[in-house]
Amino acid sequence: ATEGKEEASAAENNPSGVPQGKAGERSSILYSAGQFFFEYLVVVSLKKMSDGRYEPKITYQFPKRENLLKGQKEEEERLLQAIPLFCFPDGNNWAPVTEFTSETFSFVLTNVDGSRKIGYCRRLLPSGRGVRLPEVFCIISCLGCFGLFSKILDEVEKRRQISMAVIYPFMQGLRESPFPAPGKTVTIKSFIPESGTELIELTRPVDAHLEHVEFQALLQRLSPHLILHIFASAVLERRLIFLAEELSVLSQCIHAVAALLYPFTWAHTYIPVVPECLLDTVCCPTPFMVGIQMRHLERVLDQPMEEALIVDLCEGKILRAVGDEEEILPIKLQNEMLTSLNRHNNNNNVHTSEQVNALVSEAFVQFFVRMVGHYASHIKWSKNGSGTFQERAFCKAIASKTNRKFVKKFVKTNMFSLFIEEAEKSRIPHEGKR
């Protein structure tokens, strides 16, 4: 398992799909609208080893990369070594089966330079007769857009039932198409033997920061009350462990929790599904947000752990807490957020997932606006255009004592510092008149 350690230091740091002002752009300079959809499509299969265990291995890779420079080659090899671990994080306890419900999940790998790649996975049973092992189709991309890639994986799965050979031209067509700007659609022509040429439309959501998120997944499993406890812990950058058996539940819920922090970004260890050989991640003294399969619960509880919030997504309850979660957020604002979350829960008008996303996101964005929305007027601009944030004056400007107490803690977090660093760099012209 030790080689897995280095690989997974790759799996650190950031949630996908949450913009980070300019900071996030280092990873997406090449991959903004109009750029490649994806870097690789790989198939990861389980190979039986001599000792009877199964080990995940890449059995197909598109495109094959030739002519890489030395540094690129090393990075590519690291990436390709890490992928199988995250496609089958549930270890070696596999046996061939005749039936298997396909599932979709995602993982995040962070490069040494802080740029991120997302693995979008569909685990399915190849068509055929008799007992066989599931395999994972994994698309590696720098783009955070879960809905869009789920749709691409649907197409891949449909083709897989016919033959691997039909997948290749579809992915080639996709690779040659420009990634659409928010709200725009790209149409991909695709030929399938027997059924002729199909046109597949892929539309990117208008609101980029929500395109990787399903808040409904969170609301279905946790009460608004618990969601606020989790949010409070995340805002103060604590250690959070989520438990569920299904990989799709873990990855959806963790992406949703990270997205509640918008316009701030979780800047620490972030592994939506922790591979079995990396379970000791939970011993880290630094903040982390990780997902662990329920079958490993005993092992996790046995680890020498610092204080952490442990959330059971199956039962919708908290298994272990620090104890002060109730008091972190100012009570008045907490109650307002509860009211608006309950409204979406009890609403008989059925909302689409986009509407739920917009409503939930709005409640949390409003919280930050009320708390720290006055930050811009406390940046002092010098003649040469560089800004300096006046932290003391900023905190003093908050009239409510309870709000000020919270903000004094929040300004010490990494996510607030990164946000302010960006703000100090990017002077908005109309504020220049101050």
Automatic annotation (TrEMBL):
Ranges where the UDENN domain occurs: 39-430
Alphabetical keyword list: Guanine-nucleotide releasing factor
GO molecular function, one term: guanyl-nucleotide exchange factor activity
SMART domains for this protein: dDENN, DENN, uDENN
Keyword Nucleotide-binding (UniProt): no
UniProt GO cellular component terms: cytosol; nucleoplasm
InterPro entries from the UniProt entry: cDENN_dom (IPR001194), dDENN_dom (IPR005112), DENN_C (IPR043153), DENN_domain_containing_2 (IPR051942), Tripartite_DENN (IPR037516), uDENN_dom (IPR005113)
UniProt-annotated stretches for the region Disordered: 1-24
Keyword Transmembrane helix attributed: no
Pfam families membership: dDENN, DENN, uDENN
Gene3D superfamilies named in the record: 3.30.450.200, 3.40.50.11500
PANTHER family attached to this UniProt entry: DENN DOMAIN-CONTAINING PROTEIN 2, DENN DOMAIN-CONTAINING PROTEIN 2D
Protein name: DEN2D protein
Organism of derivation: Calonectris borealis (Cory's shearwater)
